[in-house]
Amino acid sequence: MRILPTRKSMMVLTIAVLGGFVLSGFVAAQVPPQPLLPEQARWFGPPAVPALRAAWLVGSEQAAGPYLLRVRLAAGGRFPPHTHPDTRYTTVLSGTLYVGFGERADETAVVAVPAGAIYEAPAGVPHWVWAKDGDVEYQESGIAPTATRVLR
User: Fold this and answer.
1) Is 90 exposed, middle or buried (0-12, 13-18, 19+ CB in 10 A)?
2) 121/38 Cα distance (integer angstroms)
3) pLDDT above 90 covers what percent of the chain?
4) Between these two residues, 51 and 20, which has the higher pLDDT value?
5) Which DSSP string do the residues of the chain spell out, in sequence order?
Protein backbone atom coordinates (compact mmCIF):
# COMPACT_ATOMS: atom_id res chain seq x y z
CA MET A 1 0.00 0.00 0.00
CA ARG A 2 1.44 3.39 -1.03
CA ILE A 3 0.94 6.37 1.22
CA LEU A 4 0.64 9.59 -0.72
CA PRO A 5 1.33 12.95 0.91
CA THR A 6 -1.66 15.13 1.51
CA ARG A 7 -1.98 18.56 0.00
CA LYS A 8 -1.63 20.12 3.45
CA SER A 9 1.57 18.19 4.28
CA MET A 10 3.12 19.20 0.94
CA MET A 11 2.25 22.85 1.59
CA VAL A 12 3.80 22.72 5.08
CA LEU A 13 6.95 21.09 3.69
CA THR A 14 7.23 23.69 0.91
CA ILE A 15 6.84 26.57 3.36
CA ALA A 16 9.44 25.04 5.69
CA VAL A 17 11.98 24.56 2.90
CA LEU A 18 11.45 28.02 1.42
CA GLY A 19 11.53 29.56 4.89
CA GLY A 20 14.84 27.81 5.54
CA PHE A 21 16.33 29.25 2.35
CA VAL A 22 15.13 32.75 3.21
CA LEU A 23 16.39 32.55 6.78
CA SER A 24 19.75 31.06 5.78
CA GLY A 25 20.21 33.89 3.28
CA PHE A 26 19.29 36.41 5.96
CA VAL A 27 21.75 34.94 8.45
CA ALA A 28 24.54 34.73 5.86
CA ALA A 29 23.94 38.33 4.83
CA GLN A 30 24.50 39.46 8.43
CA VAL A 31 28.10 38.20 8.57
CA PRO A 32 30.50 40.83 7.22
CA PRO A 33 33.27 39.64 4.90
CA GLN A 34 36.63 39.09 6.54
CA PRO A 35 39.40 40.05 4.12
CA LEU A 36 42.69 38.21 4.39
CA LEU A 37 45.41 40.75 3.76
CA PRO A 38 48.75 39.52 2.41
CA GLU A 39 50.51 41.36 5.24
CA GLN A 40 48.73 39.04 7.72
CA ALA A 41 50.02 35.88 6.04
CA ARG A 42 53.09 33.89 7.10
CA TRP A 43 55.63 34.43 4.32
CA PHE A 44 58.43 31.97 3.68
CA GLY A 45 61.12 31.44 1.08
CA PRO A 46 63.27 28.55 -0.07
CA PRO A 47 66.91 29.18 0.90
CA ALA A 48 68.09 28.20 -2.59
CA VAL A 49 65.91 30.94 -4.18
CA PRO A 50 66.33 34.14 -2.13
CA ALA A 51 64.34 36.18 -4.71
CA LEU A 52 61.16 34.22 -3.94
CA ARG A 53 58.73 34.74 -1.05
CA ALA A 54 55.44 32.84 -0.75
CA ALA A 55 52.45 32.55 1.61
CA TRP A 56 49.58 30.06 1.81
CA LEU A 57 46.46 32.26 1.87
CA VAL A 58 43.92 29.43 1.68
CA GLY A 59 44.61 25.79 2.47
CA SER A 60 48.08 24.28 2.59
CA GLU A 61 50.36 21.82 0.82
CA GLN A 62 49.23 18.85 2.90
CA ALA A 63 45.54 19.45 3.65
CA ALA A 64 43.18 18.00 1.04
CA GLY A 65 41.15 20.67 -0.71
CA PRO A 66 41.55 23.90 -2.67
CA TYR A 67 44.46 26.25 -1.99
CA LEU A 68 45.74 29.70 -2.91
CA LEU A 69 49.47 30.36 -2.78
CA ARG A 70 50.61 33.99 -3.14
CA VAL A 71 54.13 34.39 -4.56
CA ARG A 72 56.44 37.38 -4.87
CA LEU A 73 59.43 37.05 -7.18
CA ALA A 74 61.98 39.88 -7.10
CA ALA A 75 63.31 41.45 -10.29
CA GLY A 76 65.67 39.07 -12.07
CA GLY A 77 64.63 36.16 -9.85
CA ARG A 78 64.06 32.69 -11.24
CA PHE A 79 62.54 29.52 -9.93
CA PRO A 80 64.26 26.57 -11.65
CA PRO A 81 62.50 23.82 -13.63
CA HIS A 82 60.10 21.93 -11.38
CA THR A 83 56.86 19.94 -11.36
CA HIS A 84 53.74 19.65 -9.21
CA PRO A 85 51.52 16.57 -8.74
CA ASP A 86 48.41 18.69 -9.38
CA THR A 87 47.44 21.10 -12.14
CA ARG A 88 48.09 24.69 -11.08
CA TYR A 89 46.43 27.82 -12.35
CA THR A 90 48.52 30.95 -11.96
CA THR A 91 47.11 34.48 -12.08
CA VAL A 92 49.66 37.26 -12.47
CA LEU A 93 48.68 40.13 -10.16
CA SER A 94 51.46 42.61 -10.99
CA GLY A 95 54.44 42.71 -13.32
CA THR A 96 55.11 40.28 -16.14
CA LEU A 97 56.00 36.67 -15.38
CA TYR A 98 58.03 34.78 -17.97
CA VAL A 99 57.21 31.06 -18.07
CA GLY A 100 59.10 28.30 -19.78
CA PHE A 101 58.13 24.65 -20.14
CA GLY A 102 60.70 21.87 -20.20
CA GLU A 103 63.35 20.28 -18.03
CA ARG A 104 65.92 23.01 -18.82
CA ALA A 105 65.60 26.79 -18.51
CA ASP A 106 65.75 28.11 -22.08
CA GLU A 107 65.47 31.92 -22.15
CA THR A 108 64.61 31.86 -25.86
CA ALA A 109 61.51 29.72 -25.27
CA VAL A 110 59.59 31.69 -22.63
CA VAL A 111 56.10 33.13 -22.77
CA ALA A 112 55.40 36.54 -21.23
CA VAL A 113 52.36 36.40 -18.93
CA PRO A 114 51.30 39.98 -18.11
CA ALA A 115 49.34 41.23 -15.10
CA GLY A 116 45.75 40.04 -15.25
CA ALA A 117 46.54 36.97 -17.33
CA ILE A 118 46.36 33.32 -16.26
CA TYR A 119 48.41 30.32 -17.32
CA GLU A 120 48.01 26.62 -16.59
CA ALA A 121 50.83 24.31 -15.50
CA PRO A 122 49.50 20.76 -16.00
CA ALA A 123 50.27 18.13 -13.36
CA GLY A 124 53.69 16.57 -13.78
CA VAL A 125 54.81 18.94 -16.57
CA PRO A 126 58.21 20.59 -15.94
CA HIS A 127 58.16 24.39 -16.04
CA TRP A 128 60.09 27.35 -14.67
CA VAL A 129 59.44 31.05 -14.03
CA TRP A 130 61.45 34.25 -14.34
CA ALA A 131 60.89 37.86 -13.25
CA LYS A 132 62.88 39.14 -16.22
CA ASP A 133 61.63 42.75 -16.35
CA GLY A 134 60.97 43.56 -12.68
CA ASP A 135 59.19 42.43 -9.54
CA VAL A 136 56.26 40.06 -10.09
CA GLU A 137 53.43 39.02 -7.79
CA TYR A 138 51.24 36.09 -8.71
CA GLN A 139 48.81 33.66 -7.16
CA GLU A 140 48.65 29.92 -7.74
CA SER A 141 45.56 27.79 -7.15
CA GLY A 142 44.90 24.08 -7.28
CA ILE A 143 43.69 21.12 -5.28
CA ALA A 144 45.92 19.76 -2.51
CA PRO A 145 47.70 17.73 -1.44
CA THR A 146 50.43 19.24 -3.58
CA ALA A 147 54.19 19.66 -3.66
CA THR A 148 56.99 21.22 -5.66
CA ARG A 149 59.69 18.91 -7.00
CA VAL A 150 62.71 20.80 -8.31
CA LEU A 151 64.49 19.05 -11.18
CA ARG A 152 68.28 18.80 -11.03
Assistant:
1) buried
2) 24
3) 74
4) 51
5) -PPPPPHHHHHHHHHHHHHHHHHHHHHHHTSPP----GGGS--B--TT-TTEEEEEEES-SSSSEEEEEEEEE-TT-EEEEEE-SS-EEEEEEESEEEEEESSS--GGGEEEEETT-EEEE-TT--EEEE--SS-EEEEEEEEES---EE--
